[in-house]
Design goal:
single chain; 201 residues; alpha/beta; Rossmann fold; seven-stranded mixed β-sheet; 5 helices; 7 strands; 30% helix; globular; binds guanosine-5'-triphosphate; binds magnesium ion
Length: 201
Amino acid sequence: MIRVISADFAKSSPSIVEALSEGVTEALFLGRSNVGKSSLINALCYKKQLAKSSSTPGKTRLINFFDIAYEDEKKEKFNARFVDLPGFGYAKVSKEIKKTWEEALNTFIKKRVSARLFIHLIDARHTDLDIDKSVHVYISSILRADQKILNIYTKADKLTQKESSAIFRQDKNALLVSALKKSGIDAANERIFSLLFGKEI
Ligand SMILES: Nc1nc2c(ncn2[C@@H]2O[C@H](COP(=O)(O)OP(=O)(O)OP(=O)(O)O)[C@@H](O)[C@H]2O)c(=O)[nH]1
Ligand SMILES: [Mg+2]
């Protein structure tokens, strides 16, 4: 089994210009505002307030970098970074601010050489939203040969048994997680690790 043995805040930056230097393999967490990006990062790292989460949408306004160390069964260590991003589609700011944020976010996503994995978070209760379709189309359109996309369904604790079965019928390998109940977290970490480092575990 793979484990996160350390996770530390590294830096916040408003744009790619101030971002950490490239080099460490990165997983970018994206999805609509309030879907649970920051909460999932905390759960994956077994920490409570590493990434700031809030019930008010639009909490994450900067690009936040976290240094992660994984350890495999043979005690080999692997360094990675998790990048917590502002949510797409947060409307409650002025058009001008929204435009500035979205441009900064798009530039970062497109230009970040170290980005190897786009983790697209989708609310398990609403798997068919237009905004998620646009996010998917957008990431697919800029995806380089060395990059992958992983979908993770969040807030699984809010689903009935019947609703979660429906998700698995659509996609038998679906990753369904709850940051609240800490379910699906180990499976998510293993999938993220193997996509980042190309290793099956
Ligand atoms: N029930 C439940 N609530 C969750 C879960 N994950 C996150 N939440 C709640 O959803 C809200 C938003 O969580 P965040 O992690 O801040 O979401 P975010 O995607 O980072 O939001 P922005 O930074 O605004 O884009 C908070 O009130 C969380 O407590 C979960 O697994 N289950
Ligand atoms: Mg956030």
